[in-house]
Amino acid sequence: MPITLAELLALPNADATFEEVTIPGIGMVKIRALSLAVHHDMREDCSKGEEFNTARWETLMMVNGLAEPTVTFDQATALRKKVVGPVNKLLEAVLRISGLTTGGVVAQEAVDKAEETFQPEPDTVQ
């Protein structure tokens, strides 16, 4: 049965969608979901120039995705210089709660489709 407009409009607002994430050995942070509008603005901001600015993208994800503690752009830039594990856990959590990943794993459906396009080399007779 198709979804109704009322059901679509009942989706939770990003600014009211939070999740507490434990960073091993450090403690807990509160992550906020990104809205489609914020995500679009971030992508547009990072797409200026010839190449996508990944460093700016990660920084903006922390600025917009960390609810507690909040961080400024400069503080998020400094966090990018820390050990990758904890910072990457923050970034993965922002993506996941925003619905942009499924827990950091490739969906089985995507794997199956990729395998369908794979053609093994024919056996060669020597």
In short:
With 126 residues, the chain is of the alpha+beta class. The chain has a 3-stranded antiparallel beta sheet with strand order 1-2-3.
Which CATH architecture is right? 2-Layer Sandwich
Task: Give the class from helix and strand content and strand pairing.
Answer: alpha+beta
Q: What is the C-level CATH assignment?
A: Alpha Beta
Low-confidence runs: none
Shape: globular
Number of strands: 3
Descriptive report:
The structure is a single chain. The protein has a three-stranded antiparallel sheet. It has one domain: rbstp2171 (2-Layer Sandwich). The longest helix has 14 residues, at 84-97. α3 packs across α4 (73-79) and α3 (54-65) packs across α5. The chain starts with a helix and ends in a 9-residue tail after the last helix. The protein has six helices and three strands. It is of the alpha+beta class and 126 residues long. It has helices spanning 5-9, 36-46, 54-65, 73-79, 84-97, 108-117; strands spanning 18-23, 27-32, 66-68.
Please supply descriptive tags for the structure shown above.
single chain; 126 residues; alpha+beta; rbstp2171; 6 helices
Helix and strand topology:
Layout: H1 5-9, E1 18-23, E2 27-32, H2 36-46, H3 54-65, E3 66-68, H4 73-79, H5 84-97, H6 108-117
Antiparallel strand pairs: 1-2, 2-3
